């Protein structure tokens, strides 16, 4: 520890999100989203978006799903397992504004823009659909300036926000009305650069990366742990928080501390210095005399910071991600390897009082002074060769001493100047060489990116061509199948017609002898009925009528009732159906009828084959 992961050499890391399995995603300034593991630092996937992102979050229900919100209210959904990518429009009530920041908890996303407070959006679908499908709540009255950062509490419903005027507010996102949803609001020195949640009760805000204000937000009460806070926007803020980092120092955020006496730890550093320090603070916000740990950080500014129960992850302007253990009880949390801390990070507990009294000394840090101070011990200081408190000699003696010292010091001064000019030239040459190397590396990377884009475009073209060819083949196959089916249908119809004609001819042939036979006794059947025959016929008809009436009067069985109900339902359905449904039903019936007829023909053919086979096997029948 720490672990350094190089994501890009040309663009900065703007945002970082981590899930429970230590799978991380980052948003780079060049619109790329790399997916990587914190354990090994290896990249899993990389996505690209068309707009600048304002927030990126892992789903709480699905560990492999990532939600990203761009500056035009577009919601991007990525699934790391299947490599799928989708985009939706959130369509809030102020969709023409640009998104500044987002926060997410329990599949609910809070979105804030520069001109309105924030809309609480449910990515699964809204519980209220009065205005738009996704908007649950809209707060646009309390904040008078652009919201810079916000974060959900651990309960997933309360939200803390901070704007450029130094306003810190907390909302209950379950409530839609803003006046009812506001829980508390306080004003500190602006602008707010970071808000955060330490645990269930402790929240904080950082002003201008230099002054921290911490609150204890218990049920029904709000306590200021330390910081200069006002309850009204018009009141001036005179004091300074004891958790104060005087420039060129900066503070990226706060993390959970070690004990109740040391509840918080500051993540801070010095501008133009490549290190990050972790320094414990007591309950009043006063820092300890020396940091708990100092480790190598980023070559530029720290752009983002994310904390898990075990890890502290920072993203920098240099395109790198630095991973450090944040759990101080973890045995892997090593001792401070930097024994000579920077002078600006030592004994800084009384900065707030000095600032309030106007005694704060402005410390200008240059590259040469910082490099010199880094090489010295923590307690050492440069002593001047002459003191101003020494007694002043007379003018004659002073002139003599100066004239005597003139020739003796002229030689070494010129030699020292020549010596100092040589290393300066060497430094300039080294800088030029470094710049040339960096330019060459950038050019190489640009060429590589161009080649990658070309390869991607070629692959996409090939894929499109293959897809088009496959679609053409499918269409040709479908057409061939349809033609074959039409031919088969025509052949079947012709066969049916031939078979029907044959049947008619056979019936006509069979009917000829029967008609001749029937015509013979016609003379005998043309006689009139006798009285006895007429009585018998009438009795038969009367019996048939009685049987029919009995059947009508008898109660129906359950099967008969079901059959009657089904028949009535079919009749009603036929009456209620549309012409399209009727045509579809008739088509289905026609197809079923054709299928049954086909089966009957096949069965007849099989019988004929069986009959021919049996006749050929029987010798007697074969002779006949």
UniProtKB/TrEMBL annotation:
Keywords: Repeat, WD repeat. Residues 421-450, 457-512, 528-571, 577-603 have a biased composition (Basic and acidic residues). Pfam families: WD40 (PF00400). Residues 330-624 are annotated as: Disordered. Residues 376-418, 513-526 have a biased composition (Low complexity). Coiled coil: none annotated. This is WD repeat-containing protein 89. It comes from Caenorhabditis remanei (Caenorhabditis vulgaris). The lineage of its organism: Eukaryota, Metazoa, Ecdysozoa, Nematoda, Chromadorea.
């Amino acid at each position: 520890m720490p672990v350094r992961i190089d994501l890009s050499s040309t663009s900065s890391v703007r945002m970082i999100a981590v899930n429970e399995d230590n799978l991380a995603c980052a948003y780079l300034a060049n619109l790329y989203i790399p997916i990587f593991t914190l354990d090994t630092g290896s990249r899993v996937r990389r996505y690209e978006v068309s707009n600048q992102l304002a927030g990126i979050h892992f789903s709480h229900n699905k560990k492999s799903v990532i939600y990203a919100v761009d500056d035009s209210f577009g919601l991007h959904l990525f699934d790391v397992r299947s490599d799928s990518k989708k985009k939706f429009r959130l369509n809030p009530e102020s969709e023409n504004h640009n998104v500044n920041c987002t926060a997410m908890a329990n599949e609910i996303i809070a979105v804030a823009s520069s001109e309105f407070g924030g809309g609480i959006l449910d990515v699964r679908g809204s519980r209220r659909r009065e205005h738009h499908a996704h908007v649950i709540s809209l707060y646009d009255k309390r904040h008078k300036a652009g919201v810079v950062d916000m974060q959900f509490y651990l309960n997933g419903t309360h939200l803390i926000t901070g704007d450029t005027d130094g306003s810190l507010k907390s909302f209950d996102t379950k409530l839609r009305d803003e006046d009812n949803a506001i829980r508390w609001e306080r004003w500190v020195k602006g602008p707010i650069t970071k808000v955060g949640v330490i645990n269930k009760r402790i929240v904080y805000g950082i002003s201008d990366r230099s002054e921290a204000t911490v609150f204890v937000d218990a049920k029904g009460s709000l306590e200021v742990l330390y910081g200069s806070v006002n309850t009204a926007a018009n009141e001036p803020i005179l004091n300074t928080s004891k958790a104060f980092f005087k420039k060129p120092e900066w503070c990226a955020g706060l993390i959970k501390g070690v004990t109740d006496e040391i509840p918080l730890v500051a993540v801070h550093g010095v501008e133009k210095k490549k290190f990050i320090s972790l320094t414990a603070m007591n309950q009043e916000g006063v820092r300890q005399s020396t940091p708990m740990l100092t480790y190598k950080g980023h070559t530029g500014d720290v752009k983002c910071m994310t904390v898990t129960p075990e890890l502290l992850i920072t993203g920098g302007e240099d395109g790198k991600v630095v991973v450090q253990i944040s759990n101080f009880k973890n045995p892997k949390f090593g001792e401070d390897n930097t024994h000579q801390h920077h002078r600006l990070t030592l004994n800084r507990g009384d900065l707030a009082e000095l600032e309030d009294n106007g005694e704060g000394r402005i410390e200008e840090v240059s590259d040469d002074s910082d490099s010199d101070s880094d090489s010295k011990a923590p307690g050492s200081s440069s002593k001047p060769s002459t003191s101003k408190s020494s007694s002043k000699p007379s003018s004659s003696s002073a002139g003599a001493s100066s004239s005597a010292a003139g020739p003796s010091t002229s030689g070494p001064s010129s030699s020292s100047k020549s010596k100092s000019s040589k290393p300066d030239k060497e430094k300039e040459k080294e800088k030029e060489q470094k710049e040339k190397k960096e330019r060459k590396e950038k050019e190489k990377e640009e060429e590589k990116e161009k080649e990658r884009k070309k390869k991607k475009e070629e692959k996409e073209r090939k894929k499109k061509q293959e897809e088009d060819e496959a679609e053409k083949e499918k269409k040709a196959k479908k057409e061939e199948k349809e033609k074959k089916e039409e031919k088969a249908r025509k052949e079947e119809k012709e066969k049916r017609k031939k078979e029907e004609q044959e049947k008619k001819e056979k019936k006509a042939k069979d009917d000829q002898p029967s008609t001749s036979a029937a015509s013979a006794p016609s003379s005998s059947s043309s006689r009139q009925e006798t009285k006895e025959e007429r009585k018998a016929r009438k009795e038969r008809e009367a019996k048939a009528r009685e049987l029919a009436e009995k059947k009508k009067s008898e109660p129906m069985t359950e099967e008969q009732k079901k059959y009657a109900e089904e028949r009535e339902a079919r009749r009603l359905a036929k009456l209620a159906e549309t012409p399209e449904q009727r045509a579809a039903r008739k088509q289905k019936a026609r197809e079923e009828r054709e299928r049954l007829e086909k089966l009957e023909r096949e069965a007849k053919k099989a019988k004929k084959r069986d009959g021919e086979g049996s006749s050929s096997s029987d010798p007697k029948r074969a002779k006949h």
